[in-house]
């Protein structure tokens, strides 16, 4: 589900499950990859990406519809816990958004320190308003802590699809480049942020995102 490769201290985590939707299997694989990152002092930065035309399409709604009692809530809670891990990882994390990043997948990108998108294909989109799903407090807080008030308002209430250049203009992404440059640009940005004390970086992130972390830690109905 999540494959890890290492290059000069950078761990590249590649989601490899077609649309990269979140269900128990994906969450388990993702957390195992982050466990390895945190356990290795040789890892100085992380790049998160997907394969083909999807970065991540968010929650696996088919799985959740057929889930046993409590299953859907478990996955939502697991995804919110994953956001917390990314927000507070002791090394820099840059999302190499290779394709579509929708709903929970868009929030996954926002949980990273920076974002590099393709300039020609793939959209960043928070479609909840169009599919009649309200944002729970933790997810809303994540979006609002990473975007300007104006950009968060537009993205959350319009369901707009942002291409790479539009995402950069709105402050959603830090850069938009050609398909073959996305991972490389993300790696360069991750390396530029690296080399700091792990405990200090984590402590700073925990303070910066304290309110969002607290909101994400709450379990709400979905």
Q: In brief, what are we looking at here?
A:
The chain has one domain (2-216): 2-enoyl-CoA Hydratase, Chain A, domain 1 (Alpha-Beta Complex), CATH 3.90.226.10.
Structure description:
The protein has 222 residues and is an alpha/beta fold. It has a single domain, classed as 2-enoyl-CoA Hydratase, Chain A, domain 1 (Alpha-Beta Complex), CATH 3.90.226. Helix content is 45%, strand content 18%. Strands 1-2-3-5-7-10 form a six-stranded mixed beta sheet, with helices on both faces. Strand 1 and strand 2 form a beta hairpin. Helix 1 packs parallel to helix 3 and helix 5 runs antiparallel to helix 10. The protein is globular, with a radius of gyration of 16 Å. The mean pLDDT is 96.
Query: How many strands, which pairing sense, and closed or not: the largest β-sheet?
Result: 6 strands, mixed
> Which structural class is indicated by helix and strand composition?
alpha/beta
What is the CATH architecture term?
A: Alpha-Beta Complex
Query: Approximately how much helix is present in the residues?
Result: 40-55%
CATH class: Alpha Beta
Number of helices: 10
Following the backbone from N to C, one meets helices and strands in this order, namely EEHEEHHEEHEEHHEHEHHH
The chain-level mean pLDDT equals 96
What's the multimeric state? single chain
Please provide the count of β strands: 10
Distance between the termini: 25 Å
The name CATH uses for the topology is 2-enoyl-CoA Hydratase, Chain A, domain 1
The percentage of residues in β strands lies in 15-25%
